[in-house]
């Protein structure tokens, strides 16, 4: 397999996207910044990042399933690898950076509004990538702050790679079908875990199983052992795998 | 002359029950404007999509500009411009449009683009392409397509939506755009629009190519004439009534070369497929 990637074509494809969609992008990111001004809680921002990123990718690729826009896309003189790289840049790097930027601008707006209008000084809230874990040490509650940047970026990139494949795989209603696909795979995975628990722990109640799973996943998440880190790294290998499958799907797509 | 399109035993269908193209063979050379004619649903647009790599053949071999079109090679795409019947939307101005799309084509000529626009009567200072009418957008795409200097230009119903003066300008532009290295294929139902423009005719019937000849060769083998109603000649192949009299297609047994009536030829080929096929295979 020979991937023909040229930077000038990537630049031209990006230029084409931003020139064609400039107004829409300015409006979209302004709304996002205002949204984060009103709601700057970490959990909310992360949900917006994951969900809107997912929809953005589906929307971005919806043009491939329409006759005129699809023809225009496939006939643009650039290799399919160039087009795939541009998709990755747009829906993973660009979208992630822009959401962070909208979050920063939203936070700055909060500070400006409080300082200049309400005359109250509020501390800057930059906790998007920080996760606080309360731990009990000799009867004293301690707060450990952990940097979650790579975890968030990895989760976001995983979601984007799934939505990329989904939007290329399904011709109609890609959003609904991809979500349904994720839920189906998730459900099957959950049933498999329940079956494994039945084998290794014995038959226990449903809510007990959920409790066990929560504890196991929390342990995995909080652990910093080499084995767990390798396991996490392996889990993130799904990202390049899904992008590779998406690339092949793109090369097979017909209009 | 180079072979720009070499298709052999091409098979394509949208579903396995109905075959759209079956055992299709087509070779087209550079330096010509080819008219691709056929009834609705014969697969003309599908054939153009297969040539440009938008669709993939089920069976058969396709060699377009020495590339396999399904690979959508970047260099091949630089040398193909496909003007489809449905036009893409764009909210850019003409200048911005050129600025964005022209750099993709290495042989693009900006002066040619603006000359083409002038000839087709399109104002440069349009704010948004979306605000233009369908006909104007078509003219813009024709002007741009010809300015790319692509070796293979595919046009699907290019004269749809063009007014009468524009059709004449279109013919003039296309005729001046062709050179020894390039090839233009025009697929259309409006055969009169191709009059005096094409120098090769490809007719599809029953999902196969039934005629692929130069107009020069057609004129050598066939005579098109308007005859008195009572007049029936020995070498008559096909005739049809018209208000002016009886339009006839006859075997050309003389050395004289006349004018090709594309519409009459098309009807004759559909009615007397085998006879005409045999005549040209001799």
Q: Care to count the β-strands of chain A?
A: 2
How far apart the termini of chain A lie comes to: 23 Å
The rounded Rg of chain B comes to 20 Å
Biggest interface, chains and residue tallies = A-B, 27 and 31 residues
Average pLDDT for all residues of chain A: 88
Domain count of chain A: the total is 1
Named CATH topology of the largest domain in chain B = Rossmann fold
Describe this structure in words.
The complex is a heterodimer of chains A (255) and B (282). By secondary structure, chain A is mainly alpha-helical. Chain A has helices at residues 7-38, 42-62, 67-75, 80-117, 149-169, 174-200, 206-222, 226-236, 238-252; strands at 130-137, 140-147. In chain A, a hairpin with a 2-residue loop joins strand 1 and strand 2 (140-147). The two termini of chain A are 23 Å apart. Chain B has 2 domains: 3-206, Rossmann fold (3-Layer(aba) Sandwich); 215-281, no CATH class. Chain B has 9 helices and 12 strands. Chain B has helices spanning 44-52, 74-78, 94-101, 110-120, 134-147, 164-177, 215-221, 262-271, 273-281; strands at residues 3-12, 21-29, 32-38, 59-64, 80-83, 152-156, 183-187, 200-205, 208-214, 222-227, 236-242, 245-251. In chain B, the strands form 3 sheets. A 6-stranded mixed sheet of chain B has the order 5-6-7-3-8-9, with helices on both faces. The longest helix of chain B is centred in the middle third of the chain and has 14 residues, at 134-147. The radius of gyration of chain B is 20 Å and the shape is globular. The model of chain B has no long low-confidence stretch (mean pLDDT 91). Chains A and B meet through helix 1 and helix 3 of A and helix 2, strand 5 and helix 3 of B.
List the helices and strands and how they pair.
The complex is a heterodimer of chains A (255) and B (282).
Chain A lengths: L6 H32 L3 H21 L4 H9 L4 H38 L12 E8 L2 E8 L1 H21 L4 H27 L5 H17 L3 H11 L1 H15 L3
Chain B lengths: L2 E10 L8 E9 L2 E7 L5 H9 L6 E6 L9 H5 L1 E4 L10 H8 L8 H11 L13 H14 L4 E5 L7 H14 L5 E5 L12 E6 L2 E7 H7 E6 L8 E7 L2 E7 L10 H10 L1 H9 L1
Parallel strand pairs in B: 3-7, 3-8, 5-6, 6-7
Antiparallel strand pairs in B: 1-2, 1-4, 8-9, 10-12, 11-12
Helix pairs in contact in B: 4-5, 5-6, 8-9
């Amino acid at each position: 397999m020979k991937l023909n990637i040229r930077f000038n074509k990537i630049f031209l494809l990006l230029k084409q996207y931003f020139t064609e969609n400039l107004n829409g992008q300015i409006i979209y990111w302004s709304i996002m910044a205002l949204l984060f001004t009103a709601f700057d809680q970490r959990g909310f921002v992360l949900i917006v990042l994951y969900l809107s990123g997912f929809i953005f990718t589906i929307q971005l690729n919806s043009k491939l399933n329409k006759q005129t826009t699809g023809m225009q896309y496939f006939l643009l003189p650039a290799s399919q690898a160039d087009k795939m790289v541009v998709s990755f840049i747009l829906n993973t790097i660009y979208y992630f950076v822009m959401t962070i930027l909208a979050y920063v601008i939203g936070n700055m707006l909060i500070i400006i509004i409080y300082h200049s209008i309400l005359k109250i000084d509020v501390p800057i809230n930059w906790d998007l990538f920080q996760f606080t874990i309360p731990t009990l040490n000799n009867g004293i509650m301690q707060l450990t702050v952990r940097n979650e940047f790579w975890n968030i970026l990895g989760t976001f990139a995983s979601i984007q790679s799934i939505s990329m494949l989904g939007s290329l795989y399904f011709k109609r209603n890609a959003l609904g079908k991809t979500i349904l696909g994720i839920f189906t795979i998730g459900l099957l995975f959950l049933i498999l875990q329940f079956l494994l628990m039945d084998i290794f722990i014995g038959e226990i109640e449903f809510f007990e199983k959920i409790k066990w799973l929560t504890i196991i996943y929390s342990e995995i998440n909080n652990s910093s052992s080499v084995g767990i880190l390798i396991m996490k790294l392996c889990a993130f290998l799904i990202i390049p795998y899904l992008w590779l499958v998406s690339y092949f799907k793109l090369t097979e797509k017909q209009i | 002359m180079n072979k720009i399109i070499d298709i052999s035993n091409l098979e394509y269908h949208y579903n396995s029950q109905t075959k759209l193209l079956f055992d299709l063979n087509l070779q087209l050379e550079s330096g010509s404007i080819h008219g691709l004619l056929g009834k609705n649903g014969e697969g003309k647009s599908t054939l153009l999509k297969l040539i440009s790599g938008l669709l993939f053949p089920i069976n058969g071999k396709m060699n377009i500009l020495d590339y396999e079109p399904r690979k959508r090679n970047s260099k091949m795409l630089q040398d193909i411009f496909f003007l489809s019947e449905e036009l893409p939307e764009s909210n850019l101005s003409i200048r911005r449009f050129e600025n964005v799309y022209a750099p993709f084509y290495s042989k693009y000529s900006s002066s040619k683009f603006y000359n083409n626009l002038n000839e087709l009567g399109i104002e440069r200072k349009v704010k948004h392409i979306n605000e233009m009418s369908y006909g104007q957008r078509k003219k813009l795409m024709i002007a741009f397509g010809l300015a790319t200097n692509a070796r293979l230009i595919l046009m699907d119903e290019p004269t749809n939506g063009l007014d009468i003066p524009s059709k004449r300008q279109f013919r003039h532009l296309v005729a001046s755009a062709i050179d020894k290295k390039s090839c233009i294929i025009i697929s259309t139902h409006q055969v009169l629009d191709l009059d005096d423009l094409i120098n090769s005719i490809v007719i599809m019937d029953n999902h196969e190519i039934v005629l692929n000849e130069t107009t020069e060769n057609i004129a050598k083998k066939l005579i098109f004439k308007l005859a008195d109603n009572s007049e029936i000649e020995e070498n008559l192949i096909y005739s049809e009534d018209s208000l002016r009299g009886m339009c006839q297609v006859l075997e050309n047994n003389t050395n004289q070369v006349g004018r090709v009536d594309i519409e009459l030829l098309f009807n004759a080929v559909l009615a007397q497929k085998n006879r005409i096929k045999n005549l040209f295979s001799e």
